Amino acid sequence: MLICRTERPGDGDDIDEVVFAAFDRPDEADLVLALREQGAISVSQVAEYEGAVIGHLAMSPVLIDGEDLGWLGLAPVSVWPDCQRQGVGSEMIREAINAANELDWAGIVVLGEPAFYRRFGFRPASELGLESAYPGVGDAFMALALKQPAPRGRVSYHPAFDGG
Ligand SMILES: CC(C)(COP(=O)(O)OP(=O)(O)OC[C@H]1O[C@@H](n2cnc3c(N)ncnc32)[C@H](O)[C@@H]1OP(=O)(O)O)[C@@H](O)C(=O)NCCC(=O)NCCS
User: Which Gene3D superfamilies match (predicted)?
Assistant: First the structure.
């Protein structure tokens, strides 16, 4: 049975492994470590199958026009290669959105495949008047407002995303 749950103390090494395996390179695993070290992971969801961690998802606070307005950036999402395309990522994303709602966050942005993220309620962020600090991302930059009214402005991720 697939279990999606909040990260627990002691999950760190398993998460590191699954992020590394999903992307087949160290960059995203290093990013998760950097975010963790800086206390910037606000939602951390783990997918577990028969006791093994097979997926992970992190959300960290973003700034809008330099202000903390209670919005989160969803990244990275990682599913163990052999377990991809079986609904694990979708289940973690749904659980993480619920968790963000329960924790009273105001909204979530994500940079990803529009066809995939639309199914969870994300829309092109430009429709809400939100733009990415990264140029040229177009409709791959998506947003989901959990509270209304949604703010407008330029969204910047935590400095760890730029290697800070
Ligand atoms: C992207 C990822 C998190 C999705 O998790 P998953 O458990 O495989 O996804 P689900 O089974 O819930 O959903 C499947 C959908 O994901 C999308 N998807 C999965 N892998 C994809 C890929 N390589 N390219 C494009 N879309 C992909 C598709 O829309 C797919 O829908 P379909 O099966 O109807 O075509 C997972 O495949 C992964 O870890 N990939 C490698 C790391 C990565 O690229 N992460 C995302 C960027 S942060």
Answer: 3.40.630.30
Give the number of the atom of ligand 1 that is nearest the alpha carbon of residue 23: 42
81 C-alpha to center of ligand 1: Å? 10
Its pTM stands at 0.95
| Length of the chain measured in residues | 164
CATH of domain 2-162: 3.40.630.30
Mutate-to-test residue for ligand 1 from 15, 18, 80, 85, highest number of ligand atoms within 8 A of CB: 85
Q: Which residue's entry shows tokens 């395309």? A: 85
User: Tens digit of pLDDT for each residue in 127-139?
Assistant: 999 999 999 999 9
3-state class (DSSP) for residue 99: helix
